[in-house]
Amino acid sequence: MSDTVVSLLTPPGTGAIATVEVRGARAWELARQLFTPAGNPLPAIPEVNRFWFGTLGSDEVILAVLAADAVEIHCHGGRRVVQWVIDQFLVAGGVETSASGGRKPPESSITSAPIPAPAPTLMATSTVREGIASLGGLTPPARLPSTPSTLPTSSRLGGLTPPARLLQHAPTLRTASILLDQLNGAFANEVRRILALLGADPVEALDPLYRLAELGNTVGRHLVEPWKVVVAGPPNVGKSSLINALAGFQRAVVSDVAGTTRDAVSVQTAFDGWPVELIDTAGIRDAQGLEAEGIDHAKRALAHADLVVWVMDASSPTQVWPDEDTVAAVRVTKTRWVLVMNKCDQSVGWAPNDPPGGIHLSATTGANLQQLTDSIVCRLVPDPPSPGSPIPFTPHLIERVGSAHAALVASRPDEAAYMLREALAESEQHHFASPLGLSS
Ligand SMILES: Nc1nc2c(ncn2[C@@H]2O[C@H](COP(=O)(O)OP(=O)(O)OP(=O)(O)O)[C@@H](O)[C@H]2O)c(=O)[nH]1
Ligand SMILES: [Mg+2]
């Protein structure tokens, strides 16, 4: 019998989400053996183009059926998690292959003892668990047509359908589940509803269209791209220490010599399942030479920030506020700020409400870090969408919905309807199989 081949489709190394493909005569049998769906049991015969949420060992994953003899596992991208997922299929009888096609002997030829599940990594706890928690009560996903012929062959790149490729780029399971909802028709159904409202009474369409445009601008833009959170402030206040504490590991260089950080170093993480890029910057002050260059970098990073965490030093008797130049460097007035008083473990007696709204914390002891992450999430996603909410999920759809809203506000309902119809047609190209994404 020919081999059932297990391949890692995403690049090796740590990523947010990884995709493991299992292809061969036993692919479905192995998937049924190892994967536990969140809802009903898996059917005996694979249904092509269906997706399931569930678990593999103790990890939450998405199982996608590509063909009768091919499945994909979308799992958290931490190295150990990915290796563990691959190992499960190898122990069960699969054969590993590298992207270049070279095959490795299965680990199972060495030992068939079950491999213990890996301890969750920082990303696993902050993205997978929270992502799944955010899904709330899962309902079994919509049934999709069981024939692959509805997808043109030319759109299947590298064995992945376009929706699967979109999903693969989602940095967290929370964003993957939002994309999954859209690819199953949440966005399209809402656009149809708004179009019907527009036809009946355009005023009734204003609120839902505003909400859709707003969700596009807040959440839709960050289903694949993380929010950029820039940590800035004067030298030596603990910016790099704070990044390391938030990311949970040593990434930025910390030193008691002021002016240590020269480059804008960045770390990807997730808060409450939302993808965030934390960007460390050089301490801002008047400086010359290499340090001045670092400060220029810092100002460039500020220009692209979605949110700025301005750090001050509670162990110092003076607070250093952003100067006019720094404020001017920040891109748009919409960019939000969070004020932090670090080193509260060595505070020289600052009152808790000084500065007003400032969060007193310690990067060293970890005190009040959660308050900071809550505050960041609250500012980035003030009104989080509930599971199943419609969201424009590509930059182009966001633009179209925004234009439709602007047109309606300007009392041009026909133009708004035109934009929405365009968006609808575009979004349906992303659906898994049929315009509704549903089968009878
Ligand atoms: N007591 C105390 N010390 C801290 C805390 N956070 C940082 N430090 C110390 O403050 C010093 C400066 O920390 P860094 O993280 O390098 O500060 P920075 O703001 O990145 O400095 P530059 O890159 O030079 O601008 C180091 O000696 C840290 O150990 C804290 O919460 N409490
Ligand atoms: Mg630093």
TrEMBL record:
Residues 4-92 form the GTP-binding protein TrmE N-terminal domain. Residues 138-156 have a biased composition (Low complexity). GO terms for biological process: tRNA methylation; tRNA wobble uridine modification. Residues 228-343 form the G domain. GO terms for molecular function: GTP binding. Residues 96-117, 137-156 are annotated as: Disordered. NCBIfam families: small_GTP (TIGR00231). This is GTP-binding protein EngA. It comes from Frigoriglobus tundricola.
